[in-house]
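Worked example 2:
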Amino acid sequence: MTDRPAAASRVARLWLLFGAIAIVVVIVDQASKAWIQSSFALVASGAPSGSPGAPTPVLGDFVRIARSENDGGIFGLLGASAPLLGIASLGVIAVIVWVQARQGVHSVLLTIALALLLGGAVGNLLDRLRYGHVVDWVDTGIGKARFYTFNAADSAISIAVVVLLAIGLLGPRLGRHADAAPNPSGADSQLPNGGHP
C-alpha cells in the first residue's frame, strides 16, 4: 500500500528545494549586479587598460569585470528587444513552474535544473523591469577572442540547460525512473499474465 503521507512529504521537500535554489540564484544575481553597478563604470569601447571604463582584470586577461547593459537576450542574443523578452520571460516562468508541478516533483535532479532556470529567468526579468536592460559583467576570453559578457543569472540558466540535456540523454542512468512517484493505486506493476507470478 502506498505511504501517502511520506509521498506528500517528499513532494513538499522538493518544492522547498525548488523555491530555495531559485531564491538563492535571484539574491546572488541581484546582489552581484548591485555591487557591480556601484563599484564599476560602464565599459568604454577602446578604453586603454587601467583607465576608467576599461575592463578590470580578475584572472589576468582571461576573466575580467566588464560592466555592460544588454537590451537583448542571454549573451546579447536577439538584439534590442528587452520589452518583448520581458513579456516572454513571464511565459517562461509560468512554464517552468508548470513543469515542476508535473515532472519536477518526481526528480531531485530535474527540480534543481528547473530551480536554476527559474532563478535565472527571474533575475534577468527584474533587470528588464527596473532598467529596461540586463546588467552583464563577467567577461572571459583570451586576447581579442572574447565570450559574450554574462552575469550570475545567465550562469544559472546555462548550468540548468546542461543538466536538462544530461537528463534527456542519460535519464535512466541518472535515476530519473528511480525517482518516479509511487503508483497511486498502491498496486505492483502488472505482469504479462495478469499480475500473478
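Residues 180-197 have pLDDT under 50 and may be disordered. The longest strand covers residues 134-142.
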